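SUBJECT: A protein chain and its fold
Encoding: whole-number codes for local backbone shapes
Chain under study, with its fold:
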Amino acid sequence: MEKRQTKATEGTAKNYQRDEHYFFRKEVLPKIYERVLAKIMSDLEKCEVLSFTSDCWAGTSDNFISLTAHGIDKNWFYKQRILAVTNFPGEHTGSAIAMKLRSILEQWRLEGKNVHCFVTDSAKNMCRAFKEVDENGSAILPFFNANCAAHLLNLVVKEGLSADLDIEKLFVKCRKIVGHFKKSNKALGKLHEIQEFLEIPEHCLLQEVSTIWNSGLMMIERLYEQKKAINEYAYQNCDFGLTLTSEEWSILEELIAVLKPAEVMTKGLSKSPISVVIPYARVMHDELYEMKLFSRKVDQVRTIMYNSLKRRFFALQNQKVYAVSTFLDPRFKDRVILAEMTSNVFRANVIAWIKAMSEPLQPEIFDFDDQQFTMPPDQSVSPPPKRNGSFFDRLNNIVKSNTDRRTPTEQHENIELEFQEYLESGLEETNSNPIEWDDEFDVWLTDLGILHGTRTCPECHGGMGLESARNGRRYGNWRCSNRQCRPTLGFLMVTFFSGSHLTTKQVFALSYYWAQQMGTKKQMMREFDIKGDHTIVDWFNFFRDICTQFFGRNPPRIGGQGIIVEIDETLAVRRKYERGRLVVNDVWIFGGVERGNHHRCFMVPVERRDAATLIPLITEHILPGSIIHSDMWRAYGGIPNLPQGYMM
């Protein structure tokens, strides 16, 4: 009998699981999909112009193609939405890519949308896709194709590293050393013992990934960091094939110096708009030009990278999208121009393009073939003395030092006057983001009343206006509109976030983690990029204080219609040395607890236990209609006569 019941129960459970899976697969997921689809289409409709990024890649068993839309809506909120990551079987020819991207655009009803540009890598099949035409002779993808600057820089680095056979052999040797410790736990444990003995960072070695160029830099950086440990390991094991010679270590050190600016540029490009391509290329150009190296082989790598950078990046300032984007970026304007072009020529080209912006953007295709630009293939580099400073410090110096006189036009039209005023205005800090000048989250906080939407001057009681953020600050100041008054207030002053170095998003995220009791301090430091755990502790204490103040001003009431509440008083005392007589300063506490599942309670310190003190506390903390159980203390005698309707 029990076996039959068990089988019946198992069958019911399986059927329930099947029904549950069917319900979510057929009912819930389609509804969620439709809601997300409508939300994405609504966001895209708010953007007057869209740009797209796309890529193709091969997985372990399937090939894929992706398409992501980017735009800025009328409120200057940046929108980025992934439209497709879909299977892409067959040959990845130019025509196949063009038809696939066209079908995705039609699926999202974006084929008639005003498209700014498509950003892809510079692979020949991708470039070919934007040249393909249909049977009517019309372009399948009639859009401007901007090549991914990070991919171009990847080609620059690979071209430099593959120029010298000895450099390639050195990388093979480095991969062999790393592979030895990756494959042997015994060797790895011995390496950790040596690291601990030599008191150097106990870091693991990193292996190069062929598809990611900067993984090679990470590999040789970590090897050079662990130079002493690797040499000691090779000496103890009498296997000097597991280390490098002194000359090879010197080459490795100079290779790191050559490749480091390229890594900084790659990371900067991966999180920045297209307007930074020309300025970053200028900094990279100057970095390579001014390096002073001693190894002939590494200097040859630097020279080839320098020439490749000029060949691939200098032509970008002749393209409308790159030039106009850089010019309209308030961090750069016309201050960061690559060599072989003057600022006057750059400005003239940009102004002419902007005047013609009412015309449709014509497709421009640049394949960046080696024969396309007539530049000397082996142009030598004479390095002047090296200057100090990081990649972005150099960018700041270039922007601030380029203050050439601009030639005024004889007769200004309105648009030319705007250009002149724009060029004469100050520059934003290079580490700021010109797009995210008004954060969507802060606008939401303003709508909730948590941040100030308007401010009143504390002196003249007039209105105050919000200035734009300057000098790399996240927010501008509130300034009095009265010119004779003009005091300023910080944007976050007299708000929940006053005096905090964290952003509003970081504070709200911390409050969520605190309320849900999620994660550890180390996890939060890593997740929200917070430097010290004392910041998290301080904010958690602040959250507790706020809750205490809230419940102090809004005490909860327990009980309710027909619910039993037990009340009593007790004396809170502390005996001297835990024994003997009572101390004089004892405290009476009056409280109540609710019977049932919730077990809600309250406790209040009182000075007296008479009816004048306890009855008001009962009405304050216990809901009308409650059934009150007590020890029949004489002060409770008036409870049944209360108008709120309590029962004893």
Summary: The two ends are 54 Å apart (CA to CA). The longest strand covers residues 47-58.
